[in-house]
Amino acid sequence: MRTIGFEQVSRTVESLCIAACYELPDDVRAALEAAAAKESHPAAAKVLAQLLDNARIAADERIPLCQDTGLTVVFVEQGADVTLADTGRNDRITLIDAVNEGVRAGYEKGFLRKSVVADPLNGRVNTGTNTPAIVHHSLVAGDRLRISVMAKGGGCENKSQFRMFRPTVEASEVADWIVEVVKAAGADACPPFVVGVGIGGNFELSCLLSKKALLRGLAEPHPNAFYAQMESELLAAINALGVGPLGLGGDTTALAVRIETAPCHIASLPVAVNIECHSHRHKTAIL
What we know:
This protein is of the alpha/beta class. Helix content is 38%, strand content 24%. The strands form three sheets. Strands 4-2-5-10 form a four-stranded mixed β-sheet. The protein has a four-stranded mixed β-sheet with strand order 6-9-7-8. The protein has a two-stranded parallel sheet with strand order 1-3. The radius of gyration is 19 Å and the shape is globular.
């Protein structure tokens, strides 16, 4: 059994929060550069160039890419042969505690906007720490701890949708609905988008899959040929909408579509779409 310290986890999450909010991932930058190079609408090409300038300035000056530094979503894959060291303190004992401590420290040290309210309906008072984070924890084989941090902005998250289809539906109907969800998101969700799609599982798992899909690299198509083709066709259909960067028109409404799937009940076909804005902020570390 391998032991990892509480502080090591919290420091790692702290650095991931700051890096995610300051540094656009290389694959997202490359996708924006490729889109700018082939964009046929001058105004859209100008917006894409400005997004790239914004990313450069944020990285160089160590400031956030966007003022909405997001609700912190953390995917933790814990190897079955990994355990967290005992801190000797009753208030700092679990892996989730370590993640939240890292988020708190990262948002304070990085001067990142805190956007979490403690109660969703009654009062909506800011916690002042951007915690608690949304943590998705899973056990996997091995002796490593993989931590992925995503800073998920409110504007794009608000445009995400779920639908339960009949299991007899044609794939084309599912695809048409996905395109309509993106169309409805429009300028409000800050295109160009990365579109995460979860197909299968059940009500909650399809939504989780759509969020997890956003972590797959933009240059990494689905390993299954059927879904890889679906991703490509969806991207073409979405870009044909003409919404364009920031909703001003153009060829680039989305940079990528990423699909994740899971087995499901014979009587159901859940599908979820999670919209991500052009400021697609995520970082991963392996301990």
